Amino acid sequence: MTTFDADGITLEKVREYVWEIPREDGMRVPARVLASEALLEQISDDKTLQQLKNTAHLPGISEHALCMPDGHQGYGFPVGGVAGLDAEEGCISPGGVGYDINCGVRMVRTNLTYDDVAGREEELVDALFANVPSGLGGGGVVESGIDTVEAILDRGMEWALEEGYAVPADLDHCEDEGVREDSDPAAVSQKAKDRGKNQIGSLGSGNHFLEVQRVTDVFREDVAEAYGLAEDRIVVLIHCGSRGLGHQVCTDYLRKIEKRHGDLLAELPDKELAAAPAGSELAEEYYGAMCAAINFAWVNRQLITHRTRAVFERVFGRDHEEMGMELLYDVAHNIAKKEVHEVDGEERELYVHRKGATRAFPAGHPEVPAAYREVGQPVIIPGSMGAGSYVLRGGSESMAETFGSTAHGAGRVMSRTQAKNEFWGEDVRDDLQDQDRIYVKAQSGATVAEEAPGVYKDVDEVVRVSDALGIGDRVARTFPVCNIKG
């Protein structure tokens, strides 16, 4: 197959797993989808390809508009979308980041084995569910005033360290060391701060979760050793973001952009791509507010980590240090950051938008933490609660192919509404426990139905394509033991 036709859009095969939509109808660059034919069939089922074409209309977009192997329909940008927009002549788009700013994942490794946990899964999942806040609305590990929120927005993980919720190594093993220096708490509205003040240290709802997992496969022994991973070891995966605060930041700036930059909006094929021109007052304000929300999300995941360590201490009767509960890595997958990349043979500063895509810097890159610089940045790819997840490392081709990015998960193939019509939450939960010894606890059966394994693409195939393209190399695979959700 050399072309692929999908509802009036024709993709041309550039090489294995690389499909291109040529420039047309106002597109400033071609669009590329990185996928196998099987994944492309699923990606083409919704509006993903049209949204990718729309993204290619943005001013200052460089090289290609990109869709990762887990792509699906999103808001403005497709989920799985990556775009490098010139930081001087381009723009920045809240829709290219999403409402859940710095939704991301972190993995905590341990020296426990599956045998240490087997038979205690129910006790562990009950304790985690009782102690890690989840679900819609308020409730967090820390409920505080606006002063605390502003300190978190300003200093990120440094605040968590100062307050005793983190250890120094947690910052060392976090993207950007858990602090965006460009944050501007003053650019975050009072309404956003009010929404965030009672949600610090909470999972929220939807596809967010905390999952205890065991390492089932190691594919690159040297890299796994550098990451502190070995077969049969227990790890904890945490997936959440900036909660109501980040959602409000996105909402606020979409409205401001629509009012102040309607001329740019009128040139775009979809108002959900609303963008502020680079160098404008609103672009700078949004960037500062977004970076502040990024800091908030890192602290949110850190407080959940702090509470998780405490739960493990009570359940297993040992200090978390004795159990080796160290942060492997924390990486964002809803973000836009100023980064320097080579474009047409020259180094250019870009706003790199990763909307449901993960930074995947290769070995030797100066922004990879010192502990991992020789092997490459850890990349964490969660699957569904009935399938495996993966740890990858940034691949050698990522900088040339994807602005240093790869997929962020399995990617949905079914809407939440459709999932609730197709699945019954209690049945899903019982099947996971009876067939796979996976213990799930959630606020409602509807939440479990929305996140049933059948709702997602095959994460093995997503990761296989990433590995084959050299943008994110397989290191280890994990499998769920127990899972809590909102």
Automatic annotation (TrEMBL):
GMP binds at residues 207-211, 333-334, 382-385, 389, 408-411, 485. Pfam families: RtcB (PF01139). The keyword ATP-binding does not apply. Residues 176-200 are annotated as: Disordered. The keyword Transmembrane does not apply. It catalyses: a 3'-end 3'-phospho-ribonucleotide-RNA + a 5'-end dephospho-ribonucleoside-RNA + GTP = a ribonucleotidyl-ribonucleotide-RNA + GMP + diphosphate; a 3'-end 2',3'-cyclophospho-ribonucleotide-RNA + a 5'-end dephospho-ribonucleoside-RNA + GTP + H2O = a ribonucleotidyl-ribonucleotide-RNA + GMP + diphosphate + H(+). It is an enzyme of class 6 (ligase). Mn(2+) 2 binds at residues 239, 333. Belongs to the RtcB family. Essential for tRNA splicing and maturation. Acts by directly joining spliced tRNA halves to mature-sized tRNAs. Joins RNA with 2',3'-cyclic-phosphate or 3'-phosphate ends to RNA with 5'-hydroxy ends. Monomer. This is tRNA-splicing ligase RtcB. It comes from Halalkalicoccus jeotgali (strain DSM 18796 / CECT 7217 / JCM 14584 / KCTC 4019 / B3).
